[in-house]
């Protein structure tokens, strides 16, 4: 069932466990599209993208996650996510050298 969020999330988890981060990120992106208020989807998608060195995409996902946290009034988590963006930016620069 393509609209069943749990299946996409589970599929992403299994693919990530097997090291298939490309398909994992695709599955997490589908779960996120179906349930955009679920913070776990943002976290998992960003991590799967990071592990593929797709830093710009991961940063975009984290920025959307920050926006959600701000809308929910969770300033502490938004601050922690900004630190994650700093890490991703660092990895991006380091990789480009």
Give short descriptive properties of this protein.
about 100 residues, 5 helices, single chain, mainly alpha, about 0% strand, flat
Structural account:
The protein is mainly α. 80% of the residues lie in helices and 0% in strands. It has five helices and no strands. Helix 2 (21-34) packs antiparallel against helix 3 (39-50) and helix 3 (39-50) packs antiparallel against helix 4. The protein is flat and about 40 Å long. The termini are far apart.
Q: Structural class of the helices, strands and pairings?
A: mainly alpha
What is the count of β-strands?
0
Q: Which value, in Å, is the CA radius of gyration? A: 13 Å
Note the gap between the termini.
44 Å
Structural topology:
Elements: H1 5-17, H2 21-34, H3 39-50, H4 55-71, H5 75-96
Helix pairs in contact: 1-2, 2-3, 3-4, 4-5
What's a concise summary of this model?
The chain is 80% helix and 0% strand.
